[in-house]
Amino acid sequence: MKVQALTLAASGLLSGVAATIVPAKAATVGRALEYVVKPKMFIVSMFDPEAEVWYGIEEFDILARNITVPGLSPLFPDVHCTEDGDVCQLTIGESEINAATSIASLVRSPRFDLTTTYWMIAGIAGVNPEVATICSATFSRYAVQVALQYEFDPREIPANFSTGYIPLGSHAPDEYPQSIYGTEVFEVNQNLQKIAANFARKATLNDSADAVAYRAQYNASSAYAAGAQPPSVVECDVATSDVYYSGALLSTAFGNFTKLLTNGTGNYCTTAQEDNATLEALLRAAVKKTVDFSRIIVMRTASDFDRPWPGEAATTNLWWAEQGAFEPAVMNIYLAGIEVVEGILDGWNTTFAKGVNATNYIGDIFGTLGGTPDFGPYNYNNNPVKKRDVKAKKGKRSAIKVARKL
To answer: One GO cellular component from the entry (predicted)?
Structure first.
């Protein structure tokens, strides 16, 4: 459906819409006939199927208002909102670059007041059968950028290395990164994570006969007992990688990296391509107080396993197997997600307008928003790194880059 940005006459604006649609300041927007939307809930989708599951639902019409925002993906140039502006939805595009660019453009748009908005990243993902199964809905505390590492072809690694991925600035897979970029780990509000997960547990999740048959193959290994169970709502953590990977070796390596970067507290269960990029853009907005970082929910539903069952080829798992989970997982975005959206809207005046207090650390590895990270090299006892050393490492790396260019 092709949608266009809407404008309202000032008289209609003042008399015909709810409080979350307010007149724009002419000095800010430049045109007196535009309005500012102050959503209570913002749904973030990555591509068409994740977005379309919200269109035409009975609970609300997300296509009632359609606002073109400069800088969004050329494929998805519009933000969609309900008539009263309480709920909005954006499709940011797949991969880290698309995600960061779209969110950065949105949070700088004068058409929105996002200071009290709750964000729900709502997409599909691969799933680790050691933790959960296909068609499940997962809610994360940590997002870890697992591919931000050195990479060697596994045919050329030392015999005592378990993987060709080595943390930046380090010399072995189990050493904490010595070179820190700042986007490696994000931690969101754990109290909100648990509230959202409990809302989602009211849903009856979709499944399929093919998914039931496929997950039964994981009974062959006791390590994959969770993968053989029916779908459920699980609290666990998401990995971000532009590389769409499959296989036990890579998945295990990235699970170990998640544990390493979160000082043992992270529990890798889903893999996606956007979340760290989305969270970095939201964090930078939070620095300017235009976004509240404590109001972020990361929900991923499981559309495929990240590794094969014992005896199956990794290529078969990724390309040829009929896992039967894609369509149920997409539908479960809506089934689980609508419980979260309605739970927040219904409890707005009593609970959510004032915010959910975060009792855990929230933010990035640098402590940009204040507080002390409960992960990262500054309190890690294996090979501690100081911020000053991190900066020195970055400077050295930059110098090497320049030398290579010369």
So the answer is: endoplasmic reticulum
**Joined tokens for residue 162:** 């378990």
Residue 97 lies in a domain: no
CATH number of the domain bearing residue 330: 3.40.50
For the whole model, what pTM was predicted?
0.88
Name the β-bridge partners of 300. Answer: 123, 138
User: How many domains is the chain built from?
Assistant: 1
Instruction: For 182-240, write each residue's pLDDT tens digit.
Output: 999 999 999 999 999 999 999 999 999 999 999 999 999 999 999 999 999 999 999 99
Q: Which two tokens stand for residue 21?
A: 């649609």
Specify if 198 maps to a domain.
Answer: yes
Q: Which domain holds residue 349?
A: 121-148+183-375
Q: Is the pLDDT at 83 greater than 80, yes or no?
A: yes
